[in-house]
Amino acid sequence: xxxxxxxxxxxxxxxxxxxxxxxxxxxxxxxxxxxxxxxxxxxxxxxxxxxxxxxxxxxxxxxxxxxxxxxxxxxxxxxxxxxxxxxxxxxxxxxxxxxxxxxxxxxxxxxxxxxxxxxxxxxxxxxxxxxxxxxxxxxxxxxxxxxxxxxxxxxxxxxxxxxxxxxxxxxxxxxxxxxxxxxxxxxxxxxxxxxxxxxxxxxx
Length: 204
What we know:
By secondary structure, the chain is an all-alpha fold.
């Protein structure tokens, strides 16, 4: 598991510099522009989509076939992807939390760290939860288009909420109930991906 996490980290660093550049630009804009809280959802959702992109790259370069020769079960490989996705989402959520904290110095919003962090995690976890089963099922080529449309849909919904109320979740929605539900959905998605990947025939 540790070696798989290291592999994905190296692949993220070497193959996805553009993602880091986008996150850096979004962070700079959020810090420098007073009315830029609508950018925060991107910082939460974008990291979660990275793991699906890694999966697509692995299929294209033949890693999946090679991994089949290693003493690592397929369900372990899937579990690692979900763990890595959760770590990326947590990192993006911490970054968004830091940005929101800076807004309090401008008198723009009341800062509730726990509520904000859990709301960021809830939204962020939904990206890999929705994307990964499609990526395992349809493969890299078709999964890429599904990924694109799902990400656009999630971002548009979250941005609409952010523009209207300034928060990433509606004020009427209790985050203490939403977060456990999102965790359950994430786990269900993981087990679904395991079933799909265990039955999938791998070809180069």
